[in-house]
Amino acid sequence: MNCDILQNKLGFTCRPVSDSTIYIESPITMMFDGDCIGAYVQDIGRNRVRISDNADMLFNAQNHDIAIKSDFKAKLQALAGKYGLELNEAGEIAGTCDSGSTDFMLGNFIELSARIGHLFEGKQRQETISFERKISKI
Fold this sequence. Notes:
Blueprint: H1 3-10, E1 13-16, E2 21-29, E3 36-45, E4 48-52, H2 56-63, H3 70-82, E5 86-87, E6 93-98, H4 102-120, H5 130-136
Antiparallel strand pairs: 1-2, 2-3, 3-4, 4-6, 5-6
């Protein structure tokens, strides 16, 4: 996988992770945490690539106290399917494509990620955790 080619096509930041994997970071940020949307692009051979978030999005959402219940996860899985991607049981958003379609699939990936980020907006739990309640009484 060549960072220079994708960086020239997309204009996004790119850095190699290994001989077969690069990380692409877009300037588009997630609504709920402000992090840039990024994807790992891995050359899996036979002129195919795998694009993945390495389960970062759902992990970050849970770290921001967003509960991913089964009905909400099913909604996210259906949405991912509309973009030619999948949200697997491990919480990873991923898809494969021919290497010549990498820029198109990355566009789908980034658009899907932004839409999911919008769905997360306002889903953070509003209840005060018990530690904060106890400290506020002091």
